[in-house]
Amino acid sequence: MEDVLPSIAAEIMLHPRFVRLRTLRHHGAGNSVYDHSVAVAKAAYGIACRMRLSAEETASVVRAALLHDFFGYDWHGAAFRRYLRRFSGLHRVIRMHAFAHGPIAAQRADQVFHLTDREREAIARHMFPLAAMPRSRIAWIVTLADKAVAAREMTAALGGYLCAACRWVTA
Q1: How far is the C-alpha of 35 from the C-alpha of 19, rounded, in Å?
Q2: What is the rounded CA–CA span in Å between residue 92 and residue 106?
């Protein structure tokens, strides 16, 4: 599978703006948006193969999966926290990263990579149920792959924190 992603999505994986995602932390300290996106693309590719999707639809799944978090900002950083502080109540909630980044990533990815309507929809809706419900197979596959990979990453991240806390408590 390592060889398949570059053959399907070399244009994306080699693009400087996508490579820059390596600098943005995501689910845990040891995980970048780049790492997460590649893992989601691999999972989504596996699902697409098991579903026997066409080569064209499989390529769309991989492209959407790679770009589902192409939002381009550090949502852990002080600048994003300052931005959120300008709002309160529901206005703040709807601007929080989990709610806002899907459409931002879809728009940004479309500007750079000229997506199909289904790819754009899959990216914009991948945060279901915090976003609108996916309407296509491509969107459901990206959503499912993202949830599975994020759960694995967060479990590993929390496990590391819990182990460190246990060592601290028992020391």
Answers
A1: 10
A2: 21
Q: What confidence tens digit (pLDDT) does each residue in 91-113 have?
A: 777 776 677 788 889 999 999 99
97: tokens are 């990263």
Residue 150, C-beta contacts closer than 8 angstroms, at least 6 positions apart = 27, 36
Name residue 26's beta-bridge partners.
28
pLDDT value of position 12? 95
Task: Give pLDDT tens digits for 5-35.
Answer: 778 889 999 999 999 999 887 766 678 999 9
Q: What is the pTM of this model?
A: 0.84
Contact 144, 45 (CB under 8 A): no
CB-CB contact of 18 with 70 (8 Å): yes
